Amino acid sequence: MPANARTLTLNLFLNHAGHHEAAWRHPSTQPDALFTPDYYVRLARRAEAAKLDAVFFADGPVLHGGVEHNAVGGLEPLLTLATIAAHTERIGLIATASTTYYEPYNLARLFATLDHLSGGRAGWNVVTTSSAAAGANFGLDAHPDPEVRYARAEEFLEATTRLWDSWEADAVLVDRAAGRYADPSRIHPAAFAGEHLSVAGPFNAARTPQGRPVLVQAGASNTGREFAARWAEAIFTAHQRIEDAQAFYADIKSRALDLGRDPEQVKILPGISPFLGSTEAEARALEEELNELSVPAYGLQQLSGQAGVDLSGLDLDAPVPLEIFAGAGDVTDNARSRFQVVAGIVQRERPTLRRLLHRLAGARGHRVVAGTPEQVADTIEDWFVAGAADGFNVMPPALPAGLDAFVDHVVPILQARGLFRTEYVGTTLRDHLGLDVPENRYTAARAADGAGRPALAQA
Amino acid sequence: MPANARTLTLNLFLNHAGHHEAAWRHPSTQPDALFTPDYYVRLARRAEAAKLDAVFFADGPVLHGGVEHNAVGGLEPLLTLATIAAHTERIGLIATASTTYYEPYNLARLFATLDHLSGGRAGWNVVTTSSAAAGANFGLDAHPDPEVRYARAEEFLEATTRLWDSWEADAVLVDRAAGRYADPSRIHPAAFAGEHLSVAGPFNAARTPQGRPVLVQAGASNTGREFAARWAEAIFTAHQRIEDAQAFYADIKSRALDLGRDPEQVKILPGISPFLGSTEAEARALEEELNELSVPAYGLQQLSGQAGVDLSGLDLDAPVPLEIFAGAGDVTDNARSRFQVVAGIVQRERPTLRRLLHRLAGARGHRVVAGTPEQVADTIEDWFVAGAADGFNVMPPALPAGLDAFVDHVVPILQARGLFRTEYVGTTLRDHLGLDVPENRYTAARAADGAGRPALAQA
Ligand SMILES: Cc1cc2nc3c(=O)[nH]c(=O)nc-3n(C[C@H](O)[C@H](O)[C@H](O)COP(=O)(O)O)c2cc1C
Ligand SMILES: Cc1cc2nc3c(=O)[nH]c(=O)nc-3n(C[C@H](O)[C@H](O)[C@H](O)COP(=O)(O)O)c2cc1C
């Protein structure tokens, strides 16, 4: 790879039997193995062998609707990633967790521990939880409004980053002779008191290999973008068209710059769900095969939820009425950005309801590409080169076959073109993504303080 | 082992560099490894090779006082146990977690996932959190009173056990042909609304191998015992003398019986911290060596906290004034049961302050035994036979040497005497402890319902 080349990021987004909603019905998948560790370990090792940056799990503290016809529900991501960490050496480990439904002290400990256990491979996909049903699992009458959720998220990040800085890198002395395990002057209270939460601190674990987990984010509303531009080091996003992705990319990078950040320290990673075949026709046939396996009642339930309208009475073979997707601003706020993606498809393509369900069955609004390995590699390169993406969240439609096809056939092409690594260069997720290790605020403050005084005065 | 023999339980209680407060200063320990997975994995594998029932981690969401002079703070137990699960096959995995500072939906998921990932080896040591400083890490002005904490704990157990029952064992169909992944009539909402918390449910994971984690408890107050008698399947406890342990044992078993439970389904497990030597003198010398390494300022800080009085001005070599430990009922409630153990030592032994600090340095009030492997095995057998214990939480004073000595020298004696297994019989923690798999309440209700009706009426 030329020294001046930008490095493409490729994460494996793991989702049950695969990202297509009918994956579990396909004979190649393993829906009986979804609660067993070996299933995930095998997939992660496959991704690691291909030198992918990270594996990623979505999450929500709720049973999503539709369990009758789809493999929803599953294992908790942090513990699953700890298991994967024990069976891998290099690949990054990104878990989704909610700032709305967790306490910062507990979550800070979980991620710090994952970072310690994995030797610096932890990442946190920060979400405010998209499913409104979650509130009732936590004693709330209603899921809080997006503005309230993001306000709490801001405080949550402030609190957790203080906890992760609580122990400076040199806090642990292990001075057996003097009987001093740690230097208390290097361990700081979090001392955070906000409107939504407060944490006294100090933290109860030593500074982690990465200082803190890589902060990932996946919100797309205006508030979500502002939050991302302030905190995120990588952003997951869903786009159908390169021009939308370019606009999003430019917007986030310029917001980050406005906030005084280096835009290169914010990686934009759209989702891509590749159907692969040795010919384009073969790939399309595979897509069609999975689409035919989807249960319309399932897709209708998902879409009705997004639209805020019961669509179950509509004719599957008539065009989707435009009105239903006209008021993209009126629907429940938490799903609005993905809803806009759907509205865009309806307006541009005027599909039948069945066709729309099939379009969404693949990856719920993420870009689906069916083609040869060359064609998929071309799409990835095009988006990467055109300033639409710094890399991708790869969403195999069916597992393990969709992952095998991607790593066996697409990754080698990207490597041959000099776009993707052939060996890991570093050991941490920050190394893979080219992200800086964040400075410890207390160490930095003391350094600034020390620089301002004559050296002798300190002695 | 004769078929009618009770089975002795032996857990390995892992604590930093060892249970003695000065363990980290001893040249045999590895205080630099406390944030690395290999350290814990190696210890757990050693315990598994000796066929121990489980490894156990204590926990609290707070940095305990005294980090200057002791290795306090550490990794989060659930993730650490997931790592251990990945490197072991049979040994049980018990994590402490707080009902005061967690949300039931989150914690139910973590334990269910650990049970799935480990093939049925998870246990939960249910605590209401003993450290009052924790409240300030969760936005509370004060740590709630014990009665409030236990009232919340009752609701927490009701909510989490409902979540664990939410999916009946036959809920997952994976019927590819019919497009039915699960049977929604076999997935139930938690529908729990209490004074302190509520959870709508349903849960988002399938029923686990053990149905639910083994429920362990460690409270000793009257309220704590009542809670334990209702919920606990194993109870950790601290006793200095066999007669106190017998009284506790009889009390818990009769409380369980009064609540309609089988007393054999409640295992009583006192802590024991064994110093081992080839002669008793050698064992005592090792204990003395560790005592001499303790930093008096550390022990004084711990004891002052327990007594609610600043003891730092007292003469280390004068007898402890009886008054200080007279009012065992007046101190902060959450530490009262352990405080009573300390008061008992002071009243019976009239030690100097230095001697008392040494008595507590070993295992903070748990029984410390220094002797030959035969002597330690005798103590274990005596307590087991005399109805003082169903087994023990083994607390090596220094790691790994204290564990190695125990498994190499004491376990074989217990095996030779027919008191301890030489091979695992089952695969789950419930199997090891001889505990029943709890019935699913919904399945049971339907069975009862069905039994009441003529079979034809159901068809
Ligand atoms: C790749 C990707 C993964 C996501 N994963 C989750 C998730 O696991 N849990 C969740 O609650 N939301 C998830 N989201 C949704 C976002 O967190 C966010 O709620 C949604 O994009 C709406 O953003 P907005 O509220 O800023 O409009 C994900 C979004 C994307 C693009
Ligand atoms: C072996 C053992 C381990 C314990 N571990 C913890 C722990 O990890 N975290 C905690 O908060 N309390 C722990 N405790 C304390 C108990 O949960 C409880 O708070 C204490 O025994 C006082 O009980 P009471 O409140 O019923 O009087 C432990 C107690 C014992 C005996």
Plain-language structure description:
The structure is a homodimer of 459-residue chains. Chain A has 459 residues and is α/β, with parallel strands linked by helices. Chain A has one domain (9-273, 367-449): TIM Barrel. Chain A is 40% helix and 13% strand. Chain A has 15 helices and 13 strands. In chain A, the strands form 3 sheets. Chain A has an 8-stranded parallel beta barrel with strand order 1-2-3-4-9-10-11-13, surrounded by 8 helices. In chain A, a hairpin with a 4-residue loop joins strand 5 and strand 6 (180-182). The radius of gyration of chain A is 23 Å and the shape is globular. At the A-B interface, helix 2, helix 3, strand 6 and strand 8 of A face helix 2, helix 3, strand 6 and strand 8 of B. One flavin mononucleotide (FMN) binds at residues 58-60, 96, 127, 129-130, 146, 218-221, 224, 236-238, 271, 334, 336-338, 393 of chain A. Chains A, B: InterPro entries: Diverse_substr_monoxygenases (IPR051260), Luciferase-like_dom (IPR011251), Luciferase-like_sf (IPR036661), NTA_MOA (IPR016215).
Q: Biggest interface: chains and residue counts?
A: A-B, 72 and 72 residues
Helicity of chain A, in percent?
Answer: 25-40%
CATH architecture of chain A: Alpha-Beta Barrel
Small molecules in complex: flavin mononucleotide
Uncertain spans of chain A: 330-334, 452-459
CATH class of chain A: Alpha Beta
**Count the helices of chain A. How many?**
15
